[in-house]
Amino acid sequence: MGTPPRYDGRMREDSTVCIYGAGHIGCYVGARLAHAGAQVTLVGRTRVVDELSAHGLGFSDYLGQRGEVPATALRLATEARAAAGAALVLVCVKSGATDEVGGLLHGVLAPGTPVLSLQNGVRNVQVLAARLPQSVVLAGMVPFNVVQVASGRYHQATQGRLDAQRHDALARWRPLFERAGLGLALHDDMTSVQWGKLLLNLNNPINALCGLTIRTMLHDRLLRRCMALAQREALQLMRVAGIRPARMTAVPPQWLPWLLRLPDAMFLRLAQRMLAVDPHARSSMADDLVRGRVSEVGHINGEIVALAERLGRHAPVNARLVALMREAEAGGHRDYSGAELLARLRAA
């Protein structure tokens, strides 16, 4: 579909956006917003800032759209004080860094500044709100997968539009997000949306531990059965807790374990939309494992374990996935076959 037209309106001071966390999601969202006319500040690690300074920032997506933003059009920083004066802050750091980032932003942001969490997990907003009592802290969600394809170049590999908690503070930003091709669907009940996304994200450690792309993983019935075990366990606990996860796929969440367990021929026929994934797409957890970083497994599968504990129950499958990821992060076994991983989860 080519390059979306660059917004030719004047950049206004009230369209300044700070993205705290220049990872895959932060850089992709930042690239699209900057290309659409926003003044974007990206706060990230020195390595990323140096890379973007040298190569600029580019985006592409599964529909064929692409764009480039020169480094001179961005404000790149490594410290929280760069967020001062931003009219909107998007927090895109890993969940384990949420409390630290909230503390760093405290006293930097003007009172009433909207802060939108675009993070995995279900408790980041509470953590940020505790640290930023003078800000308007809102829940958001990124339903699509982003991969880095070259230095400073980020690709949206699956479909989806941004989701966020409905609030007057976000209403005026919707035209910018629409112009940027990101969308911004506002919801009255973001809690159910977050749990719906969490349910899908339970596959992340499975993808990381098998070392395959998401599409290849979905073609392996044994690996799909691993996903089904984790999701079924989570759904049972959510039902007991009165949590109703939002529908995030073409089928209701309660049907997902059944769909995943189907024989290959039936699954491939019924799950065509689920399989519409870029051939290079991998989970962010898989990328963390390759890069030697601590993953978010404790904030994803670990959230199911914590829910079970609050209910006085157990979540052995998700607890085993957390343990296996921690072992892999410490240099232990990875590249599991479907049969190996299924056996480990059944043994739990």
Count of domain modules: 2
* Mean of pLDDT: 93
Number of strand elements: 12
| CA distance, first residue to last residue | 48 Å
Rg, nearest Å: 20 Å
Low-confidence stretches: 5-13
Helix content: 40-55%
CATH H-tier superfamily of the largest domain: NAD(P)-binding Rossmann-like Domain
Give me the CATH architecture of the largest domain, please: 3-Layer(aba) Sandwich
Q: Write the H/E string, N to C.
A: EHEHEEEEHEHEEEEHHEHHHHHHHHHH
What would CATH call the class of the largest domain? Answer: Alpha Beta
Helix and strand layout, with pairings?
Blueprint: E1 16-20, H1 24-35, E2 39-43, H2 46-55, E3 57-61, E4 66-69, E5 75-77, E6 88-91, H3 98-105, E7 114-117, H4 124-131, E8 136-141, E9 146-150, E10 153-156, E11 163-165, H5 168-171, H6 174-179, E12 185-187, H7 190-201, H8 204-210, H9 214-218, H10 221-241, H11 256-261, H12 264-270, H13 284-291, H14 301-310, H15 316-329, H16 338-347
Parallel strand pairs: 1-2, 1-6, 2-5, 3-10, 6-7, 7-8, 11-12
Antiparallel strand pairs: 3-4, 8-11, 9-10
Helix pairs in contact: 3-4, 8-13, 8-15, 10-14, 10-16, 14-15
Textual characterization of the structure:
The protein has 348 residues and is of the alpha/beta class. It has two domains: 13-188, 3-Layer(aba) Sandwich (Rossmann fold), CATH 3.40.50.720; 193-347, N-(1-d-carboxylethyl)-l-norvaline Dehydrogenase, domain 2 (Orthogonal Bundle), CATH 1.10.1040. 43% of the residues lie in helices and 15% in strands. It contains 16 helices and twelve strands. Helix 3 links the parallel strand 6 (88-91) and strand 7 (114-117). The protein is globular. It starts with 15 loop residues before the first strand and ends with a helix.
